[in-house]
Write a structure and sequence with these properties.
This protein is α+β, with helices and mostly antiparallel strands. It folds into 7 domains: 30 residues, no CATH class; 185 residues, no CATH class; 67 residues, Arc Repressor Mutant, subunit A (Orthogonal Bundle); 175 residues, no CATH class; 160 residues, DNA polymerase, domain 1 (Orthogonal Bundle), CATH 1.10.150; 109 residues, Nucleic acid-binding proteins (OB fold (Dihydrolipoamide Acetyltransferase, E2P), Beta Barrel), CATH 2.40.50; 41 residues. Strand 13 and strand 14 form a beta hairpin. The two termini are 46 Å apart.
């Protein structure tokens, strides 16, 4: 049921209502007004309140920053060229002139803390990767000179603005960095940032339903008629889902609910803490912004991020990137399993196995590159250099996607690479003549019109923000500059128009390069250390059973065996055992991390020898639900007895363990303590093993997948008689051919098309792997109940192939696969004539036996 307020007075009251309520104490109202009138706060805008970085005695922030750069320069450039030294000096002069040495030192300091404490830090994020000072200090890990990244894209000397480093840290340990910053600058000067959740379509329907005192089930039914799509609104839902409109027309309460919900939709619903934002101030934050406490015993601002930036406060994003955690865990496993130490920044960027993997589009679990669409592009592009990966990260977004065919065709020489002007060839050569990056726009303006890179950045910003007056002025300046450099007016105007067109979707190359590097690292690990990489990925998604099932299926495709969870062998995470992966206990439903840690600590005292031994030694730290799930998931299979016996005995064993523990802590003795003998261990009841179907159902329930077998294994003879294909065999069949497959519904996602039709994407799973089945409106309407059930399905349809060669099916019929133990059924397939008289004769011959007929159109009848 709903949680409700205790009474009907929880609303904002009018002045007269308040006067009536406080008639017994009128001075309370007068005092409220007096306090309000004494509140006098003026927020200061247009100035900065950057904290001072504490430097060693004898140094200023400026001299200390220069000292660090000189000290660390050889780590990045053992033999620095004049180009390197010139760039360093230029950046330092801009940083000093704009007053940001302290900012760079603050960021360097907490990144240095992370490095010193083994906390993975990303190679960069956003435009900050364009700074050579950041690269030398270890804030970023990508050489801006090698990849032609521009400092002015990050910090423009011709535009006063705060620099903004967004830093990725290991997802599991970013909190340690925030704690470090809090302690260094003072708890009164560091706070997390508030953010406001809004009333989205489904949420507002549930909230209004609760306020109207509708039952939970009824409100839930209405809310679930709103499609789960990005930017879905109630109005869009009414257009797309006729059942919602019908319900609204039929039921006045639903009409009232929807009418109120439409008014409230989009309003702020609740306050929460920004996932990454932290503000650091020069003085106590209470001098600048209102504050409130948070669940972590820290402070949170009551003003959102945009307002804090306008107030001149330093905002930092401490982002948690799970991929960094995966790489760290994979590195640890490789060290433990193979004795090999891997440093990310020593990984070669021309590794052949890595590019072979990328060209094969085998990029499941590879950062940024695992979606179906990206795999299709990889397959067509056949990347050969790291720069191709940088370009893909930039191109694979709405807008620039339309340039992908030209990019691929130019790379493979299918169309000639051309440049609008010879001076643009050095700038556009690496992207085969296609303008992809914002930095290319800036360099083009510099090369052709003589703009400084700072002016070029202002041009880029004006075009991106569609500032028409500024764009008009910039056009004149650009064309004039081009003419001075020898271009014809018409050519200059055409190139400006081209720049305006590309600027609509040009992407930040610094960000693409940094995230392209993380993508390459993950591809390298998958290509060269596949087992450890997949184990690390499985550990990363333990809380998501669907994703665990997907990755385990992928492991099977890669030929990697995943061993079942074992009470005496498994850790919290998935672990590598030789050339296999052991299922992690943390992925079993309802086993929390704390409980598994206690279990592992107890296991240090020796392996568990029986179910009773486990219950007794865990001393009440394992409840019934946890134990039941461990038994169903096969965690206890290595202990004496089978699953049915253990499930039947567990209540008794837990009760005995609780009694013994209670006696122990109370100091009571029983007869066995007095005699100095161990208490006899309770025995398992003499039961038959559970049926295989029930055993597998339990695995699916608690692990999210079938691990030790599959329901279809009981149907092998039946499937052979019906000429059913296994999913792997489909790769040998022709596209467009009619095929029949069997499996269980592992997942099913429904959606509504632009034409208002329902369709579904079914993940069908057989004993070997999975298949995506596309189900359109008519077939979906006939099979909706089957898809929601647990029974194995028989699906007939037309075969399709993705660009990567993976089979898919467009369903034509879906039926329940009948139980194989119906021994009196005969299955006959009729290829030719189905004359009624012949069928009557066949019925007479067979008598009472049940016959299932299947014709050439795959239609069946009993």
């Amino acid at each position: 049921g709903w949680a409700v307020f205790p009474g009907d007075q929880f609303y904002l009251k009018s002045a007269s209502e308040m006067a009536e309520l406080f008639a017994w104490c009128p001075e309370a109202l007068a005092n409220t007004i007096a306090i309000a009138q004494r509140c006098d706060v003026t927020l200061q805008f247009g100035t900065y309140h950057l904290p001072d970085y504490p430097v060693p005695e004898g140094h200023t922030v400026t001299s200390w920053l220069r000292h660090l750069c000189r000290e660390k320069l050889p780590n990045r450039y053992p033999n620095p060229t004049p180009e390197v030294l010139k760039r360093v000096e230029y950046e330092l002069s801009v940083i000093e002139k704009m007053g940001y040495p302290s900012y760079f030192l603050i960021v360097w300091d907490f990144c240095d803390f992370a490095h010193r404490h083994g906390i993975p830090v990303g190679p960069g994020r956003g435009s900050g990767a364009g700074s050579i000072v950041a690269y030398i200090l270890g804030i970023t890990d990508l050489d801006p000179l090698r990849y032609k990244l521009l400092f002015e894209r990050f910090l423009n000397p011709e535009r006063v603005s705060m620099p903004d480093f967004d830093i990725d840290f290991c997802y599991e340990r970013r909190g340690e960095v925030i704690d470090y910053v809090t302690e260094k600058y003072g708890r009164e000067r560091v706070a997390q940032i508030i953010t406001f959740g809004t009333m989205a379509a489904r949420a507002v329907v549930r909230d209004v339903g609760r306020a109207m005192d509708l039952s939970f089930a009824e409100t839930d039914r209405i809310a679930k008629l709103i499609p789960e799509e990005l930017k879905m609104t109630i109005d869009k839902a009414l257009e797309q889902e006729p059942r919602l409109k019908e319900l609204m027309d039929e039921d006045p309460r639903v009409e009232s609910l929807i009418r109120i919900a439409r008014k409230l939709e989009g309003l702020a619903r609740h306050a929460s803490t920004h996932a990454a934002g932290v503000v650091i101030a020069k003085e106590d934050l209470v001098n600048y912004v209102p504050l409130q406490g948070n669940d972590q015993e820290g402070l949170t601002t009551q003003l959102p991020m945009t307002t804090l930036e306008e107030l001149g406060l330093l905002k930092m994003d401490f982002l948690g990137l799970r991929t960094l955690t995966i790489l760290k865990n994979a590195t640890d496993m490789i060290r433990a399993n193979r004795g090999i130490e891997i440093e990310l920044n020593s990984i070669p960027l021309d590794d052949k196995p890595t590019f072979d993997l990328l060209c094969s589009a085998n990029t499941m679990a590879v950062f940024q590159l695992e979606s179906d669409g990206m795999r299709k592009v990889l397959s067509e592009l056949q990347p050969t250099v790291f720069e191709d990966i940088i370009a893909l990260v930039a191109l694979y977004r709405p807008g620039p996607m339309e340039q992908i065919p030209n990019f691929i065709a130019s790379k493979h020489g299918q169309i000639p690479v051309s440049y609008p002007h010879p001076k643009l060839e050095p700038i556009l050569k690496e992207t085969y003549g296609v303008m992809i990056y914002q930095e290319q726009i800036m360099m083009a303006a510099s090369a052709l019109a003589g703009f400084t890179l700072g002016q070029s950045d202002l041009l880029r910003r004006a075009i991106g923000k569609k500032k028409l007056e500024v764009m008009k002025e910039q056009r004149k300046t650009f064309v004039s500059g081009c003419i001075e450099n020898g271009l014809e007016r018409k050519q200059a105007e055409d190139i400006y128009d081209l720049i305006v067109k590309f600027a609509d979707y040009g992407f930040n190359k610094s960000h693409s390069a940094a995230y392209g590097l993380v993508a390459y690292y993950t591809a390298y690990f998958k290509a060269n250390y596949t087992i450890e990489f997949m184990a690390a990925n499985l550990g990363n998604v333990m809380a998501n059973t669907e994703k665990v099932a997907l990755y385990i299926d992928h492991c099977r495709r890669l030929g990697i065996q995943v061993l079942p969870p074992d009470i005496n062998e498994s850790g919290i995470d998935f672990t590598v055992v030789g050339d296999k992966i052991r299922f992690g206990l943390g992925a079993v439903k309802n086993l929390g991390t704390a409980a598994v840690e206690q279990l592992l600590a107890e296991r240090e005292n020796g392996p568990f020898t029986s179910l009773a031994d486990f219950c007794n030694r865990m001393n009440g730290r394992c409840n019934k639900r946890m134990l039941e799930n461990m038994i169903k998931g096969g965690c206890m299979d290595s202990l004496p007895g089978h699953r049915a016996q253990k499930l039947a005995a567990m209540d008794n064993f837990l009760a005995t363990a609780a009694r013994l523990y209670k006696q122990k802590i109370s100091g009571q003795l029983d007869i066995f303590d007095i005699l100095g003998e161990p208490e006899p261990e309770a025995e398992l009841p003499p039961l038959k093993p559970m049926e295989r179907r029930e055993l597998l159902k339990g695995e699916k329930e608690v692990l999210g997948m079938y691990l030790t077998g599959h329901p279809l294994e009981d149907y092998v003879e039946l499937l052979d008689s019906l000429n059913v294909s296994s999913i792997p065999d489909l790769e040998e069949r022709k596209e467009g051919s009619e095929v029949t497959v069997a499996g269980v519904a592992a997942a099913c996602r429904t959606m509504i098309t632009r034409r208002g039709k329902h369709m579904a994407f079914l993940t069908l799973e057989d004993q070997f792997t999975t298949l995506e089945v596309i189900i359109f409106d008519e077939v979906l309407a006939q099979s909706r109940d089957l898809l929601a059930g647990e029974a194995p399905l028989l699906v007939t349809g037309r075969l399709e192939f993705a660009t990567q060669g993976e089979p898919k099916m467009r369903a034509e019929t879906i039926a329940k696969l009948e139980a194989p133990n119906s021994s009196h059924k005969l299955y006959l397939k009729i290829e030719g004539n189905t004359d009624r008289r012949l069928l009557i004769q066949l019925a007479d011959m067979l008598g009472e036996d049940c016959v299932v007929l299947q014709n050439a159109k795959k239609q069946t009848a009993e």
